[in-house]
Amino acid sequence: MTSILGTGITEGLLLKPVTYPWAYELYNQAVANTWFPHEVQLGEDLSDFGRMTDDERHALTHLMSYFNPNELLVNKALAFGVYPYVNSAECHLYLAKQMWEEANHCMAFEYVLETFPIDRAAAYESHISVPSMAAKEQFEVNFIRRMTEQTLDISTVEGKQDFVRNLVAYNVILEGIWFYSGFMVALSFRQRNLLRNFGSLIDWIVRDESLHLKFGINLILTVLDENPEVGTEEFAEEIRGMILKAVEMEEAYNRDLLPNGILGMNADYINQYVKYLADRRLEELGFESEYNVTNPAKWMATANDTLQLVNFFESINTSYEVNARAK
């Protein structure tokens, strides 16, 4: 039986025939979506930045403080926790493009820091000095460390479960909930006719991240489909628990992001959106929703619901479709 998991150096050296068409299609779509940060004229937003309140500028700085190091953290998760454990050539192609995209996102956020009068030293320090931000980073590091500092035997049920845990931690939680929460706040400025070019930059990042989310969940479901012994009831409950814990951590982070609120938005608003996102991710993995809240940011709907519903225990990787272009 074909397996997407493995560590053979001589395996996965031939692209055709393609074994996992969804990965090949996502690679081609990612290449078609290629962009570069300086194509956006952020300097035109400087007057907006000057008119923003202290709380608004704090929110933007807070977002940059979080996004910047965590784009590179995702690359570590990919390079050490995913790429070495898949055999598929088309998956390797996509992962290589995704790693370049994460680097490009890092450069995009550096471009923001270079353009706006943001205290770079303070922004760099926050992911260590702000407890709610540091806690989220440590959550991710704990899973990635298992992949990098210990021996992972991908042939065992335990090793495969560790592989899935890492995917859930970085892809479903970090990219699919925490990043999307930040994207919503970043794009909310444009809803008020502020930072329109910055909003375009975030649009391009969201377009990339929607493909990252599709790839990661496809990979999780393929592993579960090919290795049904992995998806035990106990393991499923553990995965669900990880996602619920992540919501609690994000709620604390957002209270630091908007301690006083800004026009049209406060921490409660963002946290309702976080719970809405978490329900979508739970459903995409075949779980029941937990929070059953409405989407307070209807204008983000096209970015939220990019995936078809599947079952965590009866996953069929062919159930996913890749659109011609991501929204």
TrEMBL record:
The keyword Oxidoreductase applies. Binds 2 iron ions per subunit. InterPro entries: Ferritin-like_SF, RNR-like, RNR_small, RNR_small_fam. Fe cation 1 binds at E71, E102, H105. It catalyses: a 2'-deoxyribonucleoside 5'-diphosphate + [thioredoxin]-disulfide + H2O = a ribonucleoside 5'-diphosphate + [thioredoxin]-dithiol. The chain crosses the membrane at residues 167-189. SUPFAM superfamilies: Ferritin-like. Keywords: Deoxyribonucleotide synthesis, Iron, Membrane, Metal-binding, Oxidoreductase, Transmembrane, Transmembrane helix. It holds the Pfam family Ribonuc_red_sm. Its cofactor is Fe cation. One of its GO terms (molecular function) is metal ion binding. Its EC number is 1.17.4.1. NCBIfam families: PRK09614.1-5 (NF007186). Provides the precursors necessary for DNA synthesis. Catalyzes the biosynthesis of deoxyribonucleotides from the corresponding ribonucleotides. Tetramer of two alpha and two beta subunits. PANTHER family: RIBONUCLEOSIDE-DIPHOSPHATE REDUCTASE SMALL CHAIN, RIBONUCLEOSIDE-DIPHOSPHATE REDUCTASE SUBUNIT M2. Belongs to the ribonucleoside diphosphate reductase small chain family. This is Ribonucleoside-diphosphate reductase subunit beta.
